[in-house]
Amino acid sequence: MLSLLCACLLLVACASEGSFDMEDQIRDIHAKVMEIWQEMTGGRAVRGSSADPTLHAACEVRPSASLDASEPQVTGRVLFRQLAPGARLEAFFALEGFPAEPNVSSRAIHVHQFGDMSQGCESTGPHYNPLAVQHPQHPGDFGNFVVRDGSLWKHRAGLAASLSGPHSIVGRAVVVHAGEDDMGRGGNAASLENGNAGRRLACCVVGLCGPAPWERQAQEHAERKKQRWARACQAA
Ligand SMILES: [Cu+2]
Ligand SMILES: [Zn+2]
């Protein structure tokens, strides 16, 4: 029934005229689906057991089992925080093991449909795409991330994915790619499905957790920022 509702909402959005672009329309549809979901469940599905509505999730990234040993062995974690059901998602990305190239490079990270790592990252399926839209409008299209000295450190806010509701990414996979995401501008069919982001280097399954991993990561992130500033000041 919900998928039918999503399809109807999408049709209405596509048929409507106005100044909204596609991204705004998809955001509105996600918000509407979330609202209906909360009404249907009386809020129980997203409130959890405590009074604090904040949701946290963790994803321990491991190299894809289908890769050769000679390929980069990327490890680390992706942590998520959502302050309330329906709110935009925040994430910390902390990964290492990329080749330490002299120049910075850019790597794509997405949410894929299945939390199945039985065939390495190959069994995680295509991009998670609950509204049957084109890339890069999938809720888990996190875009490109800069890799410096073999590491990737980033905090991002305002992400469209959710840890609750009918389009939750919990139990699905985060996949780290070898290449850059062309953000749908590659001029071929794959570009509108996956951004031609290349091989799947590493992945993990998103699972709910308590607030402690997020707090530790936030502290570590602040410390690293301070150190970077101190180094920049010394160099100046
Ligand atoms: Cu991907
Ligand atoms: Zn996508």
Keywords, please?
236 residues; alpha+beta; 5 helices; binds copper (II) ion; binds zinc ion; zinc
How would you portray this structure in words?
There is one protein chain. By secondary structure, this protein is α+β, with helices and mostly antiparallel strands. The protein has a single domain, classed as Sandwich (Immunoglobulin-like), CATH 2.60.40.200. A hairpin with a 6-residue loop joins β2 and β3. The protein starts with a helix and ends with a helix. It contains 5 helices and 10 strands; from the N terminus they run αααββββββββαββα. The relative contact order is 0.18. α1 (2-15) packs antiparallel against α2. Helices cover 28% and strands 28% of the residues. The structure holds copper (II) ion (CU) and zinc ion.
Write the layout of secondary structure elements.
Blueprint: H1 2-15, H2 22-41, H3 44-47, E1 55-63, E2 75-82, E3 89-96, E4 105-112, E5 118-121, E6 141-147, E7 151-159, E8 173-177, H4 191-194, E9 200-205, E10 207-209, H5 212-235
Antiparallel strand pairs: 1-2, 1-9, 1-10, 2-3, 3-7, 4-6, 4-8, 8-9
Helix pairs in contact: 1-2
Bound molecules: copper (II) ion and zinc ion.
Zinc ion (ZN) binds at residues 110, 127, 135-136, 138, 141.
